[in-house]
Specification:
The structure is a homodimer of 435-residue chains. The first copy, chain A, contains 14 helices and 18 strands. Chain A has helices at 15-26, 28-35, 67-72, 89-98, 108-125, 142-146, 163-175, 179-188, 197-200, 203-217, 236-244, 311-330, 368-378, 406-417, and strands at residues 6-11, 39-45, 63-64, 78-81, 102-105, 129-130, 154-160, 227-228, 247-259, 265-277, 289-296, 300-307, 345-346, 353-363, 383-391, 394-401, 404-405, 422-431. The longest helix of chain A is centred in the last third of the chain and has 20 residues, at 311-330. Chain A starts with 5 loop residues before the first strand and ends with a strand. The interface between A and B is large, with 57 and 57 residues. Strand 12 (300-307) of chain A pairs antiparallel with strand 12 (300-307) of chain B, so a sheet runs across the interface.
Chain lengths: 435, 435
Amino acid sequence: MTKPAVRVALLGCGTVGAEVVRLLHDQAEDLTARIGAPLEIVGIAVRRIGRDRGDLPVDPSIFTTDALGLIKRDDVDVVIEVVGGIEPARTWLVEALRAGKSVVTANKALLAEDGGALHDAAAEGGADLYYEAAVAGAIPLLRPLRESLHGDRINRVTGIVNGTTNFILSSMDSSGAGFAEALEEATALGYAEADPTADVEGFDAGAKAAILASLAFHTRVTAADVYREGITEVTAADVASARDMGSTIKLLCIAARTVDADGAESVSVRVHPAMIPRSHPLASVGDAYNAVFVEAEAAGQLMFYGRGAGGTPTASAVLGDVVAVSRNRLAGTWAPSESAYAKLAIRPMGDAITRYHVSLDVADRAGVLSQVAGVFAKHDVSIATVRQAGHGDEASLVIVTHTARDAALAATVDELRHLDIVRSIASVLRVEGDD
Amino acid sequence: MTKPAVRVALLGCGTVGAEVVRLLHDQAEDLTARIGAPLEIVGIAVRRIGRDRGDLPVDPSIFTTDALGLIKRDDVDVVIEVVGGIEPARTWLVEALRAGKSVVTANKALLAEDGGALHDAAAEGGADLYYEAAVAGAIPLLRPLRESLHGDRINRVTGIVNGTTNFILSSMDSSGAGFAEALEEATALGYAEADPTADVEGFDAGAKAAILASLAFHTRVTAADVYREGITEVTAADVASARDMGSTIKLLCIAARTVDADGAESVSVRVHPAMIPRSHPLASVGDAYNAVFVEAEAAGQLMFYGRGAGGTPTASAVLGDVVAVSRNRLAGTWAPSESAYAKLAIRPMGDAITRYHVSLDVADRAGVLSQVAGVFAKHDVSIATVRQAGHGDEASLVIVTHTARDAALAATVDELRHLDIVRSIASVLRVEGDD
């Protein structure tokens, strides 16, 4: 006995959407066996019907420009959204979820901006909301965070979640090139878009950080809660400085749980470039790969690695979700919606606990180190290592601190900048991965 | 309104079992929020009630030696099995599943030997069978294979799934020690058991390979289907030889899909030591860590990394499963059982496609290379690289082949062994990770 088909509406038919259509067709037999019923695309909403989409294996008559009309059709069970952006995607998905239709989306911007609206609609309609493709592309990461690690307690998530910036930083590290040159190469190779702002300024990573933090800490975290610093200011000198320390620079998204002296818990979520030791599992993640390092109380250290972007990997993640929600529908159930019971406070960046690496050019005379060290002490920042090298009447000091409040570290650097004996500050970088 | 508790029976209270009890107690509040109902341990079956188990946070009166009686109690919803071994575990779990009770087990030996019996019982009773802890401890790996990658097609799984052997090989690699010395160190540090046979002979990795292959290829694979070679024959010379090639030696479990010229698919599943290039993501997996590298058609390359053993990591994986099955119970559903629809044929080892690295001591005279190369050609094995180094009247040849049937490679080495001009074969190792 074959069960009736699970009927799918696809919103958007760009690179990822077209790949979803192809995979649904090419793997129809497998998917049917895995779900227990066939999948059928009953409609595809696009902005312009006539556009050339290559040779897609679907009846051209199912294309429509009326997305909302498609979503409302009685014969739609599952809605796949690969359009992106906040509106009209939010209106569409809220409509679908309230009507009890399962939603699979790759829309990280919407989830990070207003995931709550979607989760509320899913709870209201009794429907599934799955979004594995929204973070780290094909890497099965959200499902483990949502489900497998539910018996555990996550303390920290550190990720490389933007392929473009990882490509640029990897290339600066291997070739010694500056940011502009490496960006040019990334653009030429198709790793960076014509307008690379969302990637190089950390907006994309920031959205993903919000989604990861929400899942890891059972707390609603939005993009606005995430401290964000891009990689445009990273110089060849910074990269060389990191290399001298046996480290490399990565754009990290970090979501960390902090427990105060009085036992109160809070979360800090941030995206910024940081030095990590080359021995750290994240250091060897090269090219446009993504990886997410999770530290959990019982499970210990875990890492998930794979391709973070691209039509096929993203479509693979979408399809994995489609199988899950289809099975749920056939079983007459849906996964528990958002888990936001912990409601932890979000710490501002100034309260985040970080470490700094500061490289200074100073006058080479007696008492300089003592004066510089005094500034750190004044701000209650403890120094881990100092290296001093004299050349002519100048000397360079490379200082790595122990952990401290980020605001104290920033204030220290600010004061150093105004010190007479400090000729220039060559490099300031946060340090992650050990202490 | 609080829902009634999900009632748990625990079979076994050794290292992992005791840690499960502790975590269930310490994280009771979190678990209740995540499940939507509290968890309650109603009974713990052990061999001897009086044994000192430290200070466990449970009423001592719930211990029993009658496991079967405990499983059959009406007030048991979920059965956790951390006893291990084939019998009586199989009888217990089949009984539980047939009665519709959800089972969470870490029993890799049983799953690899007769997983079919458990899956059949689960289907019969309409119950969940979860076993994340059976492979790669705390790493959420089986759930992604079972669920997230369901929209994809896996072509190959390559894993380091035994912590003891990885510790030994990592230590041989870093110190140059021989196997016996490295094993002694592992035993002293608690990484190897008093009788290390199951680990060093590859039985443990073989069981895990069977479980991974079953999930990846939707085919029932048992431990008996897995070709198995341990690490006891790996010498310091082999490790040095690998190092010369920019490689390292790992005990790998490999499950690969092969498509014949006529389109027929089959699977080869094997465990043996192999050389992999140091640039491969698996090469940097050190100490007792585990990692599994997955190659899928759409998702591309993925890697999962983390702690493979230990009471707390294993208990964490068990608890993740307990949360999942408890939620399913509250929703009145259960996950789809085994997916074995593909029923691929298992290729014998002789038909597996592998590469060899062979290091020979030969007489240093004209025509030797030609004679040696002739033996490879006779068996249709194509040579990728040869390095020759003369010393005195002897020379050494290091030959790396292209891929070929394992039987042809083995026959080639066998014939080389009997060649007059071959003084000795210093090292024969399979090569993985590139071609």
